[in-house]
Amino acid sequence: MVRFHQKMWGFLALVVGIWLLGPPATARAGLSVTLSEVGGPTQTFNDTDNDGIITFSGVNFGDFKFDVFTVTSSSPGTGPDGAYVADTQFAVRNSASGDRTLLLSVDSDGFTAPGNAGQTLFLTNSLASSFLTGGNAAFKSALDGQWTSEVGLTGPGDSPAISTRSVVRSGASYTVSNVLTLTLGSNGKANIDATTTVTPAPAGLVLAATGLPFLGLGFWRARRRKKA
User: Fold this and answer.
1) What fold characterizes domain 31-204?
2) Degrees, nearest 5: CA angle 192-195-201
3) Whose C-alpha in 58, 75, 141, 171 is 20 to 30 A from the C-alpha of 19?
């Protein structure tokens, strides 16, 4: 009976301890943005409160004046919106008397979806909803260093700028990055909506890719039979 009571008290103490301490903390992914004006300042902003958003407004950065700036990440990508990194609501003006170039680099790690290690995914970068006057923009994206082709924008009326490539996940988690290069003339303005998304490759494409070695094996066997 004494041993039973000792075990019961031990169990109750464990339950109370868990209740007081709460559930174990969940590790959150890192999101960072680096702004760099060519020939001017460089500054990195980190998502210090781990909410997947970096935002500011009414900020002067070198010769660039930001009306509003927001970067969001859906890491780990397991929610209903899937995996994306979006440089949205990015409105900026060049206040200098000549051309100025701004580099914007974004990194977001800790993505675990979609897919699994070794699976083929589609990586898409888009400037489709962007608009600028008096300048040009170029944008590319990467999954663990596998870069898309660069898409460009030179002014109003441009066709949607979108590029997609297939990539292969190499580990249990992955990092999504993108780089935007923006050049504006004096008083040039840009409203940028630069988005990077990761989606599963269509099942037919995956089946076709996995079936290629078997087709090759069948062809090799057929040739051996003919020679025999």
Assistant:
1) Jelly Rolls (2.60.120)
2) 155
3) 75
